[in-house]
Amino acid sequence: MSKGQSSALLLLIVIMIFAGMIVFLFQLTETVTSSKYTNMFINNLLITMMRTDTGLTEPKCKRVSDLVFCAYFDPGWRCGDMDCFSFAEHTMDHYISMFSEENLRYLLIVETPSFIARSQSGEPVRLEIGDSKLKEEKGKTFSEPLTLQKIINGRNYILSVKLIVKKKK
Amino acid sequence: MDKLKSQSEIMEYVFIVFFLVLIIFAIIFFLTYWQTSQFKLEKSKETENRILFVAEHFMSMPFLVKEKLMFDDSKLTAVTKLMECEDLQKIFGKNWYVTIKVFDGEKKMCRYSNYPDCNYWEFCVENKGKESKSYNFPVNIYRKKENRVDMGVMKVGIYE
To answer: Which of A2, A57, A121, B4 has the most C-beta neighbours closer than 10 Å?
Structure first.
């Protein structure tokens, strides 16, 4: 190969690398743009879901946030035909499935602030509702942690909930 | 021998010129693509920002909500009756539409005559013939008569 040919080939390779970089940056910008909506969606989803009435009138089962408290502190309690945990999961499955266009998998992580409750191994006591495999996967979106507060028998209880979602393939 | 050498040099030049022309065309093509993509991206960003703007303001307008992210069904019904699309466009700008639907079965448009036995509100009716981009937002709807909070979806669309 002559000097001229090799220079031309080199030039072509440089241009291709340059074009590749530009396309990569362009795609990156696009991803960043749509994340604004995703963040707003997931935070709204968590807040609105927690405030929704379940249709039951019992104080431990009235709203989805009450179910979360019940599932955390008193999982054996029955709300209608189901225990608190199953009813919370059933209700959340139902609401998430309503956003069929988004086609989502979810995981709700419930914890007390770490200084209040820790297991014997030192881990915070944690309740998980939904698809726990999501913790290990990439490409998921986290909501901002939401603090729930409830007075039960004159005592103030605080829980921190966080929602993780990922689009189904 | 000299003739053969000159021929091969000419061929070399032809190849180099061919490659250079190819590269120039590739650059022109790429720059055009880049410009078009940038324009589309800017337009898409602007549309998205407008959707988020309309959504955020809709979810916090005192004449529509009980509290942030929680619409009051009586206020929604009153606004659909009393305010025209033009009145709302004075607040939110033009070229948009919003629908709110409670997750409780079949869609039933809310009017004064059937309130509260309804679950769907429409602001600035969607023009299906026009190209638009839309996003869904989870919202609460406070059912005033039953004193109950339901969950629903607000769809905000902007015409492109």
So the answer is: A2
In a domain, A124, yes or no: yes
Give the closest-approach CA distance of B124 to chain A in angstroms. Answer: 22
Residue A105 in any domain: the answer is: yes
Instruction: Identify whether A54 is part of a domain.
Output: yes
Q: Does A49 touch chain B (CB under 8 A)?
A: yes
Q: Number of Cβ pairs closer than 8 Å across A and B? A: 88
Reported ipTM: the value is 0.81
Split into its structural domains, chain A has a count of 1
- Sequence-distant (6+) residues with CB within 8 A of B137 are A40, A41, A44, B55, B59, B153, B154, B155, B156
Question: Tens of pLDDT along A6-62?
Answer: 776 777 787 787 777 767 766 655 555 468 898 999 999 999 999 999 999 999 999
Q: Which residue of A has its CA nearest to B134?
A: A37
pLDDT in tens, B90-147: 988 889 999 999 998 889 999 888 988 999 999 998 888 888 999 999 999 999 999 9
Strands B132-143, B70-72: parallel, antiparallel or unpaired by DSSP? parallel
Mutate to test the interface with A, among B18, B48, B60, B136 (most CBs of A within 10 A): B136
